[in-house]
Structures are given as C-alpha cells and as structure tokens.
Write a structure and sequence with these properties.
The strands form three sheets. Strands 1-2-3-5-4 form a five-stranded antiparallel β-sheet, with helices on one face. A two-stranded antiparallel ribbon has the order 6-9. With 343 residues, the protein is of the alpha+beta class. The chain is globular, with a radius of gyration of 21 Å. It has two domains: 95 residues, Phosphorylase Kinase, domain 1 (2-Layer Sandwich); 231 residues, Aminoglycoside phosphotransferase (APH), C-terminal lobe (Aminoglycoside 3'-phosphotransferase, Chain: A, domain 2), CATH 3.90.1200.10.
C-alpha cells in the first residue's frame, strides 16, 4: 500500500520530492482530480492528485476494472502510437498521485482567444486525431485498458437517460408525461442502435479545445484516461461540437472534409462525405444531449454550477443534428414541446 496524498498535504508531498518549491493550484473542471504546478528554479512539474478511487473513472464506463491508474496505461499506449502526450514522472510510493511534464497553459481554447488562426489549429488537431486513430489501430492487439472498455448499447443508452433525468425531469419547467416518455424511449433505442452499427475504434472520449495543449508550436493530447472503444466519428464530434467553442455549418463541412483527407493519408477507411456527415450528426445528437444532462448533474450532485452556461450551446447543436437528420420527427416535436426555447 502506497502513501495517500490529499489537497491538504500536497505541500508536504512537494517538499519531500522537490524540496522547497513554489506551489500553484491550477484550474479544475468537472473531474474529481486536482492539479498543482510546482516550480523550483528553472524546473516545473504538474501534479495530478486523484481523489476517491484512483482506478475508477469520473465517467461511467462499460468494461473491465483497470489494474493501475488508467492515465498511466493510456499514456504509455499513446506514446507507443507516436502521439505527443505529457511525460510521466512517477514516484511510485504514492497511490493516487501522478507527476507530469509541465506543458504550460496554452490550450486551443486559449489560443483562439489570443487570435491564433482557427483553421490551422483545427486542421492540425484533426491530423493529430487521424494519427492517433491510425496508431491505435496498428497496436490494437496490445494489452491496454482502452481495449477493455467500450461505448456499448448500455453506456450510450445510460447517457441519454442522463439527459432525460437531469434536463427534462429536473431542469426543464415542463415535465414529460407518459406519452412523451414512450416517444423518447423509442428515439433513444433507435439512436443507440444506429450508433452501435458504426465502425468502432480507439476513442479519446473528450478530444476538445481544453484537452489539446500547444507547447513550442506543437500540439499535445491530455486528459485521455477515459479512452475506450467507440464509434469512429466520436472524437471528431467532441472536437467540432465542443461546449466551449462555436462552429458554423460551413466550418463543420470544411473540417469534416479534412477529416476524410487526414484518414486517407494515414491509411484508415473512409465513407463518402454525405455518409460521414450523417454519422457525425447521429453521434453529435447523442453526445450533446448527454452533455446537457451532465452539466445539470455536475451542478445538482457535485455542487459545481460553472457548466450551466454551456447548456444552451449543447442543446443548439442537438437541434441542428435533428434538423439535419430528419429521422426523429416525433422526438423532435416532443423536445419542442418540453424545451420550446431550444428546439
């Protein structure tokens, strides 16, 4: 049994391992992890402290329980794939702490705010995604936790129930009745069946502007501990249906086309643009409904309201997907009735 580190004794951890160092707490999003930066002279490290069960994901997963912290396993796997990820400096004696290379603070989200060119940033991010998917495909026989978990029917369906429970039953002023519920159950079942029929591969699970870092002009991938098998289009949806960055329809078309070109370049299979856009909107519909529900859950259960302002954009993207697909007219009518200001 290793030593347990908490936020309260992080200073002792730093002093034991680095000596006297300047300690800075970094911003924390919705996870049960804390992050600190330790600076000593011209060196700096980022310290990730995992609270509660270090082997348990913050997200619901469907598959095996890992034997070590998933971040460590997936980090080694992505390095073997040739993907830039932060280096790990593991001190071993501590069962819930990972010490990482400091990549700085420049995410894609911040780079856009500072005036970096959006098209280049996202072309680079899509190219990196294609290399990640191709590298993972070549190593799919390896023993990694990402291949022991998957977006199965149960998990995809549970995420949609998250939307039903926290948006429609909790957050919305108009509550669903039995007739609404019957329509939505059929909608959820059909959408999940469509998604699970898509080709599956490695999925980062949260490949978006806050999890792509720029250092010395190079993109790095972070926050990959929840990686699993899922629909091939999932990471592109995470990127282009980001809760923190808005994309116009012509931008989505341009970036989906580049996604196809990038996949061809690394030898991955592709559909035509029309089919790919259909797959994109099917997955976007599921993810953005889930995201909206998750933001309410984080407020109600974790007492963190900071993500509530992201709900309108999530529902806007879900509405755009419904309008594009035209497969779920009955469900769309129900959502218009229950959430008229968004659908």
């Amino acid at each position: 049994m290793g030593f347990w580190v908490s936020d309260e004794n992080i200073e002792n951890f730093v002093k034991d391992n680095f000596g006297e160092a300047f300690l800075q707490r970094l911003a924390q999003d919705a996870s049960s992890r804390s992050y600190f930066r330790a600076r000593k002279e011209d060196r700096s490290f980022v310290i990730m402290v995992v609270h509660k069960d270090p082997l348990k994901s913050d997200e619901v997963v469907d598959g095996e329980r890992p034997k070590e912290m998933p971040f460590l396993e997936v980090q080694r796997f992505l390095k073997r794939c040739g993907i830039p990820v932060p280096e790990v400096m593991d001190f071993g004696r501590y069962e819930n702490v990972i010490v990482l290379e400091d990549l700085g603070d420049l995410t894609i989200e911040k780079a856009l705010f500072l005036g970096y060119e959006k098209e280049k940033l996202y072309f680079d991010a899509i190219d990196l995604m294609a290399r990640m998917h191709s590298g993972a495909e070549k190593l799919k026989g390896e023993d990694c936790i990402c291949y022991k978990r998957r977006f199965g029917e149960g998990l995809l369906r549970w995420e949609l129930e998250h939307f039903y429970e926290y948006i429609l039953c909790d957050w919305s002023e108009r509550k669903p009745d039995a007739k609404h519920r019957k329509v939505l159950e059929g909608f959820f079942d059909t959408l999940v069946t469509m998604l699970t029929s898509l080709p599956y591969g490695f999925v980062h699970r949260d490949y978006q502007s806050r999890n792509l870092m720029l250092k010395d002009g190079k993109l790095y991938v972070i926050d990959f501990q929840d990686a699993l098998l899922g629909p091939y289009i999932y990471d592109l949806v995470s990127l282009l249906r980001d809760s923190y960055v808005e994309f116009k329809k012509d931008e989505v078309l341009k970036f989906v086309q580049h996604f196809l070109e990038a996949r061809k370049e690394v030898g991955l299979s592709c559909f035509d643009i029309e089919t790919t856009l259909r797959h994109f909107h099917l997955q976007a519909l599921q993810r953005k409904l889930k995201d909206a529900g998750r933001f309410v859950y984080i407020d109600r259960v974790k007492k963190n309201p900071k993500f509530l302002p992201n709900i309108p954009r999530s529902l806007m993207y879900a509405r755009e997907a419904l309008e594009f697909l035209q497969d779920f007219k009955d469900a769309h009518e129900v959502l218009k009735e229950l959430l008229p200001e968004y659908f």
